[in-house]
Amino acid sequence: MTQRPPEDELVVTHEVVEIAVSTRRRTIAGIAIIVTGLICLLAWGLGSKAGDAAFALSDIADKHQIPFVRIPGKAAGVVLGLLIVLLGCWHLARGFSARSMRWVLSAVLLCFVIAFLCWAGTGDPTLQLSIFGLLQGTIFLAVPLILGALAGILCERSGVINVAIEGQLLAGAFAGALAATVAHNAGVGILAAMLAGAVIGALLGVFAIRYAVNQVVLGVVLNLLVLGLTNFGYDALMQKNTEGFNNPTVLAPIKVPLLGDIPLVGPLLFDANIIVYCVYVLIVVVDVALFRTRWGLRTRAVGEHPKAADTVGIKVSRTRYLNVILGGLVAGLGGAYLTIGAVGSFSGNISSGKGFIALAAVIFGRWSPRGAVGAALLFGFADALQTLLSASHTPVTVPSAFLSMLPYLATLFAVAGLVGRVQAPAADGEPYLKG
Amino acid sequence: MTYQGTAPASAAEEMLPEAKPGPARRLVDAIRYGNSVVLTLLAMLCALLVGAIMIVIADPPTRSAMGYFFSSPWDTFTRGWHAISAGYVALFEGSVFNPDSLYSNGHTPIFGPISNTLLNAAPLILGGLAVGVAFRAGLFNIGVQGQLIMGAICAGYVGFAFRLPPLLHLLAALLAGVIGGAVWGGIAGWLKARTGAHEVISTIMMNYLALGLLNYLLGISGFQAPGSNQAISRSVHGTARLPHLLGPNLSLHLGIVIALLAALGCWWLLTRSTLGFSLRAVGANPSAARTAGMKIERSYVVVMLISGGLAGLVGCSQILGTNHALTGDIDAGFGFDAITVALLGQASPRGTIFAGLLFGAFRAGGVVMVANTGIPADVVLVIEAVIVLFLAAPALIRAIFRLRESRGGGVGVGQLAKGWNA
């Protein structure tokens, strides 16, 4: 008779199983990297004008100015291009494991972007590209995306597809601006925004969980509903009386005592408004809660195999309702950032597709908080880069219409090329009907 | 032995319908159990109620009457009722029939409202078909907006850059529009088949790409109207324009006929052709379709080509019929309205025609409602969304109106598109 080991000796071991990437895929990926490297080498390196590119690392208004960083454009392009080509050759010859491939691709992207920036900044001695502005813009644009993506993850890990992120952001933005104006208090605005997001979340929950409506369809319709309602409110209330309904107090930036004084990082990360600090906390909380707590385990169980979860006594519907409403609260906060966290006033369709980009970030990040945050930062960066380039005179003026396509093109390539066939939580989108 | 012989006969007998109930009885049953027509009407009723609430909120006299509601409640009701009736009467007069036109000696044409309704219905029906066909193959095409923009760009370019004989020019422009939309849709299908990129994401991104391309083209010479610094293109030559149907004074053009023909084509494709059968099989159960030897990757590409082509026709109807010149707003919201039309029409060609007519009427009436009463046009958007929301959850309507549980039937929008993993 085999002796059952005592409970505390049951150890779950995590093993990383390396799946050999097929040769054909490896060849294609290797060639693609080499081609990228050659573009970098020829266009950004050899195509560069003589001279240095100057990068500003601190805000113009900042007291402590960091001296400009000057990089010779031609040399940077050539060196970084060669580096990418080398990585590609290595991948062709030996092959990186699927696990390290993610880092390799990130490195390729980083080298490529730096070389591009050097090329764009070279030639005009009076031109300084503000790296500080670029990074600040990235964070500014990524905050609503991160919050939207976290909302999506909370819902989808429990098995409810959330296409209504866009609607939740919009509802939050509207309610935040309205409540903050009426109450003369930005805090009330934040609460109202979160509540509005939660109401849309609750609607999503009722229709998806109780009435088993197809969730993608539901999300699209809810987006439409919120768009109609907020536009209506904007026309009927805000435009007739801007002072009384659409003039919210904007959240003031709060400087963290010590951390805020670090050069570059300080003004970038630790001199922001309360919503940005909430984002830092939420990223960690969601990540830890989802993978390290009982609630997280239950959420994932319900999202992967609701029947099994039900069998061991987890309340499937209750868990899903809770998650969908939590997600709504988070997305509503993201909406608040659009109005009272940034520009101040609401305008029609202010979210302008950010919810869909957040959804793409969820999928691109494979339904994990870390991945989604990375994706959101990437999209934010692409958007900020576009703004930077259309504002400064680069050697070849790229039409701004094409630059504005950059984030979407990046998303498309990311979803099609880098991610490929992703696996959503197994029961994502499937209503659970008992019995 | 004898048992084997008799069993089929008795089974057949059991399957015979019971004595057919009379028409009155069937009507009562339809209302008691709620067939799909009854459910649709009830959903519309709910939506109009929601719209009425919004109209009341937006109406300043009613709002001021609400201020002294407890001293004189009747004021609120009369003023509210006045606002609501004025709004919905304007909606009706703008979309179906305006009694004033009978006494205006031809200043306001009698068929004006209907002409506007049909004018708006054409792109809605075409767009609804585009989304519906993709639905039937299990794909959710949110990219009608981008596809119609590409269709409009291609059709418009052929329309204003070439000089061809009348009929030939129109056909060439239509063909170009269909190809433009089909290519844009086909890319999303190909990406899905090839790399597994989810079509919801890729089509959304391609909407933005098409918009960016449109904005770029509207600023370059060759596209931009000469001598203009506005973002507007050259005008389509008369030879490539869709002819008007009800005389030059009414704006209705051939687009509605194209839409009805396209609906007929889709009906044939989905119910009578081998291709349609395999598309529906892939939509119903991809694994089973694969086991049966169907190439589901090929289906994805084919259905997105068809869907994109239909969306391209929306662009044709807009640029060759309604507007004659490209602007940044050529889409006019038809891209996303197409989704609600397809949902309301349950992705069937016949249902899509009715849904397109209804939403076309809402659009035509909405313009008049804004002009006559000042009620924001977005009420119509909310009404549309609520209709679809209620229809997607028939159980909710049943609960509200205390209808019996259906014996099968009902509205099946909810089962059309699948989740991420499908």
SSE blueprint and pairings:
The complex is a heterodimer of chains A (435) and B (422).
Chain A: H1 23-46, E1 52-56, E2 69-72, H2 73-93, H3 98-121, E3 128-130, H4 131-157, H5 165-183, H6 186-210, H7 215-238, H8 242-245, E4 254-255, H9 265-269, E5 271-272, H10 274-292, H11 294-304, H12 306-311, H13 316-343, H14 354-364, H15 369-391, H16 400-419
Parallel strand pairs in A: 1-3
Antiparallel strand pairs in A: 1-2, 4-5
Helix pairs in contact in A: 1-2, 1-3, 2-3, 4-5, 4-10, 4-13, 4-14, 4-15, 5-6, 5-7, 5-13, 5-14, 6-7, 6-13, 10-11, 11-13, 14-15, 14-16, 15-16
Chain B: H1 2-15, H2 23-33, H3 36-58, H4 60-67, H5 73-95, H6 112-136, H7 144-161, H8 166-195, H9 199-217, E1 232-235, H10 255-272, H11 274-284, H12 286-291, H13 296-323, E2 325-327, H14 334-344, H15 349-373, H16 378-392, H17 394-401
Helix pairs in contact in B: 3-5, 3-16, 4-5, 5-15, 6-10, 6-13, 6-14, 6-15, 7-8, 7-9, 7-13, 7-14, 8-9, 8-13, 10-11, 10-13, 10-15, 14-15
Commentary on this structure:
The complex is a heterodimer of chains A (435) and B (422). Chain A has 2 domains: 23-126, no CATH class; 132-419, ABC transporter involved in vitamin B12 uptake, BtuC, CATH 1.10.3470.10. Chain A is built from 16 helices and 5 strands. Chain A has helices spanning 23-46, 73-93, 98-121, 131-157, 165-183, 186-210, 215-238, 242-245, 265-269, 274-292, 294-304, 306-311, 316-343, 354-364, 369-391, 400-419; strands at residues 52-56, 69-72, 128-130, 254-255, 271-272. In chain A, strands 2-1-3 form a 3-stranded mixed β-sheet. In chain A, helix 11 (294-304) packs across helix 13 (316-343) and helix 15 (369-391) runs antiparallel to helix 16 (400-419). The longest helix of chain A is centred in the last third of the chain and has 28 residues, at 316-343. Chain A starts with 22 loop residues before the first helix and ends in a 16-residue tail after the last helix. The mean pLDDT of chain A is 84. By secondary structure, chain B is an all-alpha fold. Chain B has a domain at 119-349. Chain B contains 17 helices and 2 strands. In chain B, 51% of the residues are buried. At the A-B interface, helix 7, helix 14 and helix 16 of A face helix 3, helix 9, helix 14 and helix 16 of B.
